[in-house]
Amino acid sequence: MDLPFAENYKIKMVEPIYRSTREERENWIDQAHYNLFNLKSDQVFVDLLTDSGTGAMSDRQWAALMTGDESYAGSSSYFHLKEKVKEIFGFDYFLPVHQGRAAENVLFSVLVKAGQLVPGNSHFDTTKGHIEFRKATAVDCTIDEAFDTNGMHPFKGNIDISKLKAVLNEHPKEQVPMIIVTLTCNSSGGQPVSMANLREIRQVADQYQIPVIFDSARFAENAWFIQSREPGYQDRSIREIVSEMYQYADGMTMSSKKDGIVNIGGILAMRSKAWYEQASVYNILFEGFVTYGGMAGRDMNALAVGLDEVTSGVYLENRIRQVHYLGNKLIDMGIPVQKPLGGHAVFVDAKRFLSRVSKEEFVAQTLAIELYLEAGVRGVEVGTLLADRDPQTKENRYPKLEFLRLAIPRRTYTNNHMDVVAAGLKNIFDRRDSIARGFQIVEEAPIMRHFTVKLEPINDQ
C-alpha cells in the first residue's frame, strides 16, 4: 500500500493546555463582554484566533536566536536580514519594524494624505485602519467571484482590473498614492492572487504611473497556490515564483509573524531611495534606529532563517495540508466554508451557517462565541464588527462576506486538535435552527473596534 503523508518534523517540546468545562467558559466569556480577544490564553483549549506570531519556531531558528547581535546601531543581525530580504524579494532598501501594522504606519506616513484613495483587494483591518486614520479611503477592487463562497475560482484574491481602471480613470494620479495587493487576501478568505493578475496590475500601474505595494504577510502561501494552481508554474520552485512576484512591486510591507514564522517582527522594503530616506525618519520616530527598528537582533536572526524555511516547498506542503485537513472535514460534514480552501485558515460562511441570525446582530461573532462555548475553541470574526462604521455616516458597514475565521498556527497543533474543532462546529451545525438571536454593542472604540468592543446577548424577553 502507498505510505500515508506525514510531517517532515518531530516534536521536541510540548506545552500543556487546560481543558475547561462549559460552565467555566460561560462565566469567562461573560466576564470578557463576549469579546474573544478579552479571554485569557489559559481559558482557551484550541486557539485559532490568529496565525500571527503564534507558530512554533524550528531548531535552526532557536539556534539563530543565540547568536543575535544586540548592538543599537550597525547590528550584524540587521545586515544578515537585509541580505536575506534582497536575496528573496529583490529590494535594495529595507527597514525592520516590530510588526506589519508598524510597516504600514511608517510607509503610509510617507505616502498617504487626506482625501486620497487607495485601491486594493479587500484591505485587512490594520491596512484600512491606517488609511482611514489619515482621512483617506480604501477602495475594494476584488473580483466578484470572491463573494460566492461556493464558487471554485482558483484565485479569489485577484483584483478586478476593470474596477481598478475605473478608480484610476475617475481620479487624478495625485489622488491615488498606491495600489495595495494583499498576498494572500485575508479578508476574502485567505485567497491567493495569480501571477497573471500581478502582471496585469503592474501593467495598469505603469500606464497610470501609480506605485504598487504588496502586503506580504502570507507571500509564500500565495506562491504555493501559484505553483499548484496556475498553468506554467508547476515546475518552478517557490523561490523562483516569489522572485517573479516581486518584480511587479515597488515596495512591500510584511508582518513577519505569519510567513516569517517568528513571534514578533516586520519588514518594510522598497526600490526607491527617496522613499527609504523619508521612511527612515518615521522609522526612527515610531520604531527605533534604522538597523533595529523595534526588533531585537536575535529576532532578526530568527526571521532570516524563517524566510529560508518558508520558501521551502516541503514546509509549505506540511502547512497547507493541515489547513485543508480541517477544511475538508468541515465540507464533508456539510458545513459551509469559503471554497477553494486557502492557505492559513478555514473561513466558515456564518451567513449560511446561522441563517436565522440577522446581520445587525453580528452573525459571525455569534458563531465564534458558540464555538468557544461548545468546545473551548477560539476563532475570530471577519465580518461586520471588523468592517467598522462608515467614517462619514457612522453607520455599520455590512460586508458581503461574514466569516468565522479559524486561523491555524504554524507547526503548533496536531490533527487531533483539528478533529476537536470540527466536532465542535458539527454539534453547533446540528442545532443551528435553535440559534436565532445574536449580540448588540455596549461599548466600542471609534476605529478598529473589534479588538476592544464590549457586547451583550440579545434576549427575546
From TrEMBL:
Q: Is Lyase given among the entry's keywords?
A: yes
Q: Keywords in UniProt for this one?
A: Lyase, Pyridoxal phosphate
All residue ranges annotated as the Aromatic amino acid beta-eliminating lyase/threonine aldolase domain in the record = 47-423
Q: Which cofactor does it need?
A: pyridoxal 5'-phosphate
By its UniProt entry, which InterPro entries does this protein fall under? ArAA_b-elim_lyase/Thr_aldolase (IPR001597), Beta-eliminating_lyase (IPR011166), PyrdxlP-dep_Trfase (IPR015424), PyrdxlP-dep_Trfase_major (IPR015421), PyrdxlP-dep_Trfase_small (IPR015422)
Tell me which stretches of the chain form a coiled coil.
none
SUPFAM superfamilies in the record, alphabetically?
PLP-dependent transferases (SSF53383)
In its UniProt record, which GO terms are filed under biological process?
aromatic amino acid metabolic process
Q: Which residue positions does N6-(pyridoxal phosphate)lysine occur at? A: 258
Q: Which domain of life is it from?
A: Bacteria
Entries under Pfam families matching the protein: Beta_elim_lyase
Kindly list the GO molecular function terms attached to this UniProt entry: carbon-carbon lyase activity
To which protein family does this belong?
Belongs to the beta-eliminating lyase family.
Identification of the protein by name: L-cysteine desulfhydrase
Q: Organism, per UniProt? A: Sunxiuqinia dokdonensis
